Every structure is written in structure tokens, then in C-alpha cells.
Amino acid sequence: MKNILIYTIAILLISTSVFAGGPWPQSKGVGYFKLSECWTNFDQHFTDEGSIDPNNTTGIYNTAFYGEYGLTNRFTLIANANIFSRNVVNNQVSGTNGSVIVAGDAYNGLGDIDLSIKYGLTGVGSKYPIAITATFGLPTGATNKGDFGNLATGDGEFNQILQIDAGTGFKLGKHNAYASAYGGFNNRTNGFSNELRFGAEIGVGLLNSKLWLATKFNVVESRKNGETAETITNTSIFANNTEFASFSIEVNYYFSKRVGMSANFAGAFRGEIIAAAPSYSVGVFYDMSK
Amino acid sequence: MKNINYFLIFTLFATLLTSCVGDDIVEDRVDEELRITNAIDTIGMNSTYQFETLYLDNVGVRQEANIEWSSSDNTLVSINNNGLAEGLGNGSVTLTAEYQGLDTYLLQSIEVVVGESTTEVENEESIKEGVIITTSSYVLEGSFELQELDGNLIIQIADNYKASTALPGLFVYLSNNANSIGGAHEIAAVSTFNGAHTYTIPNVGIDDYKFLLYFCKPFNIKVGDGSY
Q1: How many domains, chain A?
Q2: What is the span of the domain harbouring residue A87?
């Protein structure tokens, strides 16, 4: 379950907003780079029935690098890497005599890395750009760490995502704005169920486009074609079939022409086998397109 | 740029503060208990029998304790403070085990007859039964029976048993505390999620524990329990 939780939370925090991601490839030689700290701390989760149950308090803290670079005007190379990940589980302490019932634990290490290539199906300047993206999720993070094997910095599987994005820019009053939507399929290995993904995003630029506000809606639907605890006997923490529907709010502010800060809040309002708590991200970015 | 530096330092500091291993408090208080774990109906004339007790503290964990034994008639059955009894004359007596703690006084008594030979208690208590009930949102249900056989505790889960396969690391325990696996006996990882199956547990008595607990071990999620 932890593997999947980390994996899913990473999805929630991926920056695809404003000037990165979506159907807009970077121009040749132009890039967008972001360094961020993403975290969540949860003591309850969505069960397989979609209800909310308590669990041992668990924290996941990722220092992430996100970068896009235009190889051509149509091809953009994308990297999303958790360069440092920390996974923490609390002690279970008796409320009666203060003794430790089950000791907590923590693990630090490299997280998973996603590498993507995006191709713009429409030309530069299209009013309704469409792009396809192939993502390869490299299992560079650790799994089954800690005394109980319940700590991880990655999902332990090599996945491949094929995604299509479409969007448009428009005026909202006197402000610049944009909207985009995507759909995709995630082919997962190591017994994990495949997934359908879709979502939408809308953003608006304020203060002469120095301040951008965006909100996103993301859905992951499991195909539920993978292994379960009943069919896996060689590991004790394997769980599968995570699903969620989430929303997020993101603020980006340009301090200078190209440099700015971002803050993101995300939370799932429906889920199965996933943390029932918000996740947060703050970071700094460098936007060469300006 | 200066603002960004402040921002990063603040973020790093806040993250470090919240990323330490903390404590989750488990409400695990239970009543202290004293049990006589090897009761007998009859003690043989001129033979001895060693009684054993089990003291459980206020979180249901077995602890060493000073137990005082007494007999209602020492001319029929004598017993010392180690629980060693001897049949001396025909008749029946009440044997009592007492524990005096700082705030607690516990007492357990049994009726014993002096006869030709020592016989263990033979009643419905030699087989116990219970019902597994989910205490979470995960499916877990079924009935079970326990029986001591050849020094083993046999737990037979009935064919109406069903457990969710969604949770990783589901383990089954014997415990004296329905809310904690502290001091519990780990039986096994659950590998059967539907239908009848049996657990054989060596060196555990039928009176040593009183709950069957199901926990998701890696994430300390209590899934369900069954008392017996």
C-alpha cells in the first residue's frame, strides 16, 4: 500500500500547470525547471470500499526536480525526479503506560524518476494545441525498507504512460487564461493493475501575468487486473488497485522575468487504498520562455 | 532573489520539523486479570498437583506476580504459595489465588474434590468458540473454534470466513487486549481469505489469550477481532 501511496501522491504533486505540461511543448532550446519540496502526513486512508479508516501516522517528503526542455519546436523532453525522498512511520505508544508497542521507523533515499517525451501534434501557435506524451516511470526508488518492509521511496515497478493533452488559451476579461484536459493509459508491471487517467485544468494570470492561479482535477481509475494479497505470497506489503479523484490548487508568482515561486495544495475527495489527507508542495522555478 | 532564499530556508526548516518519527497514542487500557490456567476437578489422594496462574497487567500483557494461594480446608487439600497442592483427605475444598497490587486486588477460586486420581476440568470450556467481526471498513467475518490437543492450540476457522484481499500484510494474532498487539502472540500471515482453514499453535493454552486479532502489520491497522 505504501508503494502505491507514494506513487499516487507523486502524481498529485506533478507540476503540469501554467507554463509546463499540458498540450504546449516547449520551443526549441527553451526550458522550464522547478525544484520543489512536496509532502504529506496522514493518519487515515481510503479503504477498498472507499470509506475512511485510521492508520499509523505516515509521512512522505519528497524533494523533487521537474524539468522540460524543447528539443525541437514539437519535441519536448521532460524529467520528473524525486531526488530525495523520506518516508516516516510513527511509533505506536501505549496510552496507558507509555511503552512503545511498535517502534516507528524512517527511510531516506532516491525516489522514482519519470522520463517523458512530448510531441506536439499541432504546430506552434495553434489555437487548440494537441500533444501526445510517452512517460517511462523508472523504479529508482527503494521498496520494502524498514523492519516491517513498510517503508519505500518508490513503487518498485517500471510503468509506461501514453497520454494525450488538448487545450486552449483565451481571455478572461482582461486577463490571460488557459484550459486543458488530458486522458491517458498507464501500463504497469510487477503485478500492479493498469490505470486509466484523465483530468482537466484551468488557470488565469493576474497582475500583468506575474501571478497565476490554477486548479486541476485528476482521476485515476484502476483496471483492477493486477495481483492482490491473495495471489501474492512472496511479500507482505503488496497492495493494488489504487484509485482516486482529486483536485488541486496552485499559485505561481514571478519575482523576476523568469524566476518565481509556486505553492500547491492537493487532496483526494474519493479514493481507494490511498491516503485520505492533503498533500502540499512549494518550490522555485526558472522559466526560459519569458 | 533574497525572498526566494528566505522562502527555501523556511520550507526546509518546516519540512525537517515535521518529518521526524513521532508517537501515535493507542488507547489500550484493560482491566487487570488473574487466571488459573490449568484447573482440575479432582485431585488424587496423597498426590500433588502444580497449579499455574496468569497475571495480565492493565494493557493485557503477561507479567510476573506474587500470588498467594490458600485452601478452605488444609486438612483435605494443602497448597503452598507456589501453587503446589496435595490431596490429604476425602471431601471438597475451595482453592483461592489472590493478587494484591498497588491499586488492584484480584481473586480467583476453584472447587476441587479429593478422589482416587487427578482429573482435569471436563466441560464446555475445553472447546471455546467465537465470531470474527470487522472493526474497520474492510470485509472480515466468520466463526471459529479453539481446542487444546496434544499440547497444541488448534484454531479452526469455519467456512463462513471471508477477509478482504485489499490490505497488504494481514496477520492474525492471539491477544489479551482487543486494541493492541502489545504482548500478543503472532500466529501467522493470513494466506486464506475465504473458507475454512486451521491454525495449529504449539505451547499455547486455551486460557492464555482471549481475543483473535486481525491486524495489517506493516501499517498497524486493526481490521477486526473475535473474542472467545
Answers
A1: 1
A2: 9-287
Q: Which residues of A fall within a CB distance of 8 Å from B26? A: 92-95, 101
Other CB atoms within a 10 A radius of the CB of residue A18 amount to 24
CA distances from A74 to A118, A164, B73 (A): 8, 14, 99
CB A7 within 8 A of CB A153: no
A140: in domain: yes
What is the pTM for the complete model shown?
0.85
B153: helix, strand or coil: strand
CB contact under 8 A, A55 and B221: yes
- Predicted confidence (pLDDT) at residue A8 exceeds the cutoff of 50: no
**Phi, then psi, of B92 in degrees rounded to 5:** -125, 150
Q: Strand pairing of B105-115 and B91-100?
A: antiparallel
B61 CA to chain A: closest CA distance, Å? 11
Q: Which of B19, B103, B214 to mutate to test the interface with A (most CBs of A within 10 A)?
A: B19
Which chain A residues contact residue B170 at CB under 8 A? 229
A222-275 tens-digit pLDDT: 999 988 888 775 443 456 788 999 999 999 999 999 999 999 999 999 999 899
In a domain, A98, yes or no: yes
Would A3 be classed as within a structural domain?
no
d(CA A73, CA B75): 104
Whole-number Å distance between alpha carbons of A179 and B74: 92
Name A186's bridge partners. A161, A195
- Cell reading at A32: 522550464
Taking residue A123's Cβ as centre, other Cβ atoms within 10 Å add up to 9
